[in-house]
Amino acid sequence: MEAIIHFIFEVFKIAILSCFYATLILFIFLFIEKTFPKSIFSESSKNKLKIWIVSGFFVSIFLFAFMFTYWGNHGLGDFARIPIGYGKEVGEIDGVVAYIEPNDQVNVKSFTKQNEYLVGETNVNPVDKPKPYFCWNLKNNKIQFFENEMEYDAFAHQNNLPKNSNFKSFRENYNHYWNGWRLWLLP
Predict the structure, then answer these.
(1) Which of 13, 51, 53, 140 has its CA 20 to 30 A from that of 39?
(2) Cβ-Cβ contacts under 8 Å for 120 (sequence gap 6 or more)
């Protein structure tokens, strides 16, 4: 149910964004018409409503398609995701469980990405197999676990990676990635 409500919200957001972009395209056409009165734009810009409707239609199709791409999909409903490069992602379900899937699903507590590495701290229960800290090489899809903070910090210092004090929660990373211009200009 949450996914349907979020999807309907995204469709309305796409409609508003396509109106905005269509108006921007119309102003560009009018500017070109005034600057170059004998150009092809001057002939086509006589029917301003048609330009606005057609450009809005194509922009809305583009935005709708972009919403389902690797770089545009931020999740629907109770599922959220952050693309981290190399076709990989960090996902979260129900706003509670963040995870990565290098080989087996690993629950993460906090993390940060630097270049081709995702480093972080896992949510380790006594029965879980993973150790508390990890370094995931996104390029070759290899993950390395560390027994404790000191072991990870030594590895991080040796490889110029962020220390565990720089790790952020999923929500902080999500807000950093999807806020700003992405929030206002993309679905």
Answers:
(1) 53
(2) 108, 109, 110, 111, 112, 133, 134, 167
Taking residues 154-178, what's their average pLDDT? 94
Q: Which residues is 93 bridged to in the sheet?
A: 79, 97
Question: What sign does the CA torsion over 26, 30, 31, 32 have?
Answer: positive
> How many CB atoms neighbour CB 142 within 10 A?
11
Nearest residue to 65 via CA among 20, 18, 22:
18
Query: How many whole angstroms separate alpha carbon 56 and alpha carbon 10?
Result: 16
Residue type, 12: F
**Residues 90-136 pLDDT 10s:** 999 988 889 998 767 889 999 999 999 999 999 866 555 668 899 99
Tell me if 110 sits within 8 A of 168, measured CB to CB: yes
> Which has the closest alpha carbon to 130: 88, 174, 99?
99
Whole-number Å distance between alpha carbons of 144 and 131:
9
With residues binned 3-state (H G I as helix, E B as strand, rest as coil), the percentages for the chain, rounded to 5, are 45, 25, 30
What pTM, to 2 d.p., does this model score? 0.84
Rounded CA gap, 68 and 86, in Å? Answer: 17
The structural domains of the chain, with segments of one domain joined by +, span 2-66, 79-181
- What strand order describes the sheet that includes 79-85? 79-85, 88-93, 97-100, 106-114, 117-122, 133-137, 142-146
